[in-house]
Specification:
Protein name: Trafficking protein particle complex subunit 6B
Helix content: 55-70%
Subcellular location: Endoplasmic reticulum; Golgi apparatus, cis-Golgi network
Radius of gyration: 15 Å
Strand order of the largest sheet: 1-2
Keywords: Endoplasmic reticulum, Golgi apparatus, Neurogenesis
Largest sheet: 2 strands, antiparallel
Pfam family, one: TRAPP
InterPro entries: NO_sig/Golgi_transp_ligand-bd, TRAPP_component, TRAPPC6/Trs33
Length: 147
């Protein structure tokens, strides 16, 4: 678990450090992190679902993501899953592991999106491999909680 946290922090820091040295731009860093997460999410879902029965509907897939997938990757379930029953789902983690090492204060709030891009890609890649085209965004209003 500690290795994943260290690797993730170094991926983010390394990409943004390269961008500051003129090898890219910040928007590209977020896209690259999201793309890496997408590929990892596809692979993880393939492994996690190889012995499971097919899902009935989108809601069952989202429940799987919130319980099994999230637990395997982040060692806890999603705290809250909400839906408008029209294809929009809101997953809320009140103590997101990739943000807990950062201060709970407001001073790091502007850096939080960097640390969520990989996870957005992870979810989007998993959903894609389960047959759901999606747009995944992240929102942080207070650290270390995210939606």
């Amino acid at each position: 678990e500690a290795l994943f946290l260290l690797l993730h922090n170094e991926m983010v820091a390394g990409l943004y450090r390269a961008a500051e040295q003129g090898e890219g731009e910040n928007g590209r860093c977020t896209t690259k992190l999201e793309s890496m997460g997408f590929r990892v999410g596809q692979g993880l879902i393939e492994r996690f679902t190889k012995d499971t029965a097919r899902f009935k509907d989108e809601l069952d897939i989202m429940k799987f993501i919130c319980k099994d997938f999230w637990t395997t990757v982040f060692k806890k379930q999603i705290d809250n899953l909400r839906t408008n029953h029209q294809g929009i789902y809101v997953l809320q983690d009140n103590k997101f592991r990739l943000l807990t090492q950062m201060s709970a204060g407001k001073q790091y709030l502007e850096h939080a999106p960097k640390y969520l891009a990989f996870t957005c890609g992870l979810i989007r890649g998993g959903l894609s491999n389960l047959g759901i085209k999606s747009i995944v965004t992240a929102e942080v209003s207070s650290m270390p909680a995210c939606k």
